[in-house]
Amino acid sequence: MNRRTFLVAGAAGGLALATGATAFTLTRSPARALAPWRDAGLSQGDPRLFIVEHAVLAPSPHNRQPWIVELLPDGVMVLYCDLDRRLPQTDPQDRQIVIGLGAFVELASLAASRLGLGLAVMPFPEGEPGPRLDARPIARLEPVSAQVPPDPLFAHVRERRSTKKPFDAARPVPPDAVAALERLSGGEVAVAVVADPARVATIRDLTWQAWQIEAATPRTHRESVDLMRIGRREIEANPDGISLGGPVLEALALAGSLTREAMASPESIAWRQGFEMYRAMLAATGAYLTVTAVDSGRAGQLAAGRAYLRANLLAASLGLSLHPVSQALQEFPEMDGTRVALDRALGVASPARLHMLARLGYGPAVPPSPRWPAGTRIRSHEPKPA
Question: Judging by DSSP bridges, how do beta strands 67-71 and 378-380 pair with one another?
Answer without folding.
Answer: parallel
